[in-house]
């Protein structure tokens, strides 16, 4: 996430945070026992006066924390709380930046079809030289480069990926819409950027960066492989634990 905002800004929760806090509090107080059907997205939209996307984000995060179970076409249920897990939530950088009251914009370096190398084909479950979609996008926070997103997409999941306007939606937002039921595999490293990444981020090639490589899978089939590079002085990865 971007470096911490001022204490004044920390006091105000983003809309999705208010919804998440309400549901988490009610769950902890036993309003919905394990297995109980919870309010629908439409009911929560009406209750909080926010968008369905906002409600969906709050529910996604509660699901990733093991507090709820979502069954497509059926509803949201309070989870059985006997499981223990360590999670890393898939967050959309656009939402993170705007939640801080900052302005997000992107510069698209490339969006094109390529042929999958042997290594990439293995990662995405494709045949060598099969078509694969490739995008390279830089995300900005108040005009400052914050993330270089180098992403490959399995065309079977998003056949129209090359025509998406990424100045209006992010690849993460788009892919969560077309393939919402994800598993994710991560590696996180502190390393230096490539020459191209350094140039796009406006940093030196020797500057330390936080590099996250994420492969996402839906129904046992690979969706996307992304390399996300953040200047170490502009970004930090934080977690939260509660018993």
Report on this model:
- The protein has 243 residues and is α+β, with helices and mostly antiparallel strands.
- The chain has two domains: 7-78, Orthogonal Bundle (Arc Repressor Mutant, subunit A); 96-231, Chorismate lyase, CATH 3.40.1410.
- Helix content is 28%, strand content 29%.
- The protein has helices spanning 7-10, 15-28, 41-48, 52-64, 93-99, 118-124, 171-178, 195-201, and strands spanning 68-71, 75-78, 104-115, 131-141, 144-153, 183-191, 209-218, 221-231.
- Strands 3-4-5-8-7-6 form a six-stranded antiparallel β-sheet. A two-stranded antiparallel sheet has the order 1-2.
- A hairpin with a 3-residue loop joins β1 (68-71) and β2.
- The relative contact order is 0.13.
- The model is unreliable at 2-11 (pLDDT under 50).
Brief summary:
The chain has 243 residues and is of the alpha+beta class.
Q: Descriptors for this entry?
A:
243 residues, alpha+beta, Arc Repressor Mutant, subunit A, Chorismate lyase, six-stranded antiparallel β-sheet, two-stranded antiparallel sheet, 8 helices, disordered N terminus
Write the layout of secondary structure elements.
Layout: H1 7-10, H2 15-28, H3 41-48, H4 52-64, E1 68-71, E2 75-78, H5 93-99, E3 104-115, H6 118-124, E4 131-141, E5 144-153, H7 171-178, E6 183-191, H8 195-201, E7 209-218, E8 221-231
Antiparallel strand pairs: 1-2, 3-4, 4-5, 5-8, 6-7, 7-8
Helix pairs in contact: 2-4, 3-4
């Amino acid at each position: 996430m971007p470096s911490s905002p001022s204490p004044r800004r920390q006091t105000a929760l983003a809309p999705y945070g208010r919804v998440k806090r309400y549901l988490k509090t009610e769950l902890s107080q036993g309003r919905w026992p394990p297995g109980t059907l919870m309010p629908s997205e439409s009911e929560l939209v009406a209750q909080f006066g926010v968008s369905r996307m906002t409600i969906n984000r709050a529910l996604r995060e509660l699901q990733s924390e093991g507090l709820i179970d979502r069954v497509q076409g059926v509803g949201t249920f309070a989870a059985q709380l006997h499981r223990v897990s360590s999670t890393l939530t898939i967050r959309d950088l656009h939402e993170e930046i705007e939640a801080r009251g900052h302005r997000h914009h992107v510069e698209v370096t490339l969006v094109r079809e390529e042929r999958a190398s042997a290594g990439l084909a293995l990662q995405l479950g494709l045949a060598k030289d099969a078509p694969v979609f490739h995008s390279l996008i830089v995300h900005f926070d108040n005009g400052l480069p914050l993330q270089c997103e180098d992403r490959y997409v399995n065309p079977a999941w998003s056949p129209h990926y090359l025509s998406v306007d990424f100045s209006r939606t992010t690849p993460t937002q788009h892919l969560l819409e077309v393939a919402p039921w994800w598993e994710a595999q991560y590696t996180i490293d502190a390393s230096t950027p490539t020459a191209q990444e350094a140039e796009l981020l406006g940093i030196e090639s020797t500057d330390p960066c936080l590099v996250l490589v994420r492969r996402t899978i839906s129904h046992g089939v690979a969706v996307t492989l992304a390399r996300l590079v953040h200047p170490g002085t502009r970004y930090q990865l934080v977690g939260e634990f509660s018993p």
